[in-house]
Write a structure and sequence with these properties.
There is one protein chain. The chain has one domain (15-35, 43-105). The longest helix has 29 residues, at 8-36. It is built from three helices and no strands. With 106 residues, the protein is an all-alpha fold. The chain is elongated, with a radius of gyration of 17 Å.
Amino acid sequence: MQPSQPTEKELLEKVLAPLLEDFQYWFSSSKSLLESQRITFLSEEEQNNLITRIKNSQEEVKTASMLFKVTDGQAGIDTKVLMLWHQLVAECWTVARKWRHEKQKN
């Protein structure tokens, strides 16, 4: 007998909920770094712009998480939005990696 396939709701709960938590973690971690350190390889404008984009994305993720909970897992998120958040997290990882590398050189 074949195991039953998870419902769309079960799949969203198993995949989307942890993904939203991960986005919040990485955005929070990145924002803390950018607000506490002067990232010398970014201009001040670039650093401030990145902080602003992170804050905006944090609010979007927070809203999406609340909607997901309020609708008992019935609300999904457009894949394009998830990709934008993923690209921002990847950008943050690149900045953090380069910052650590620069810090080790000094």
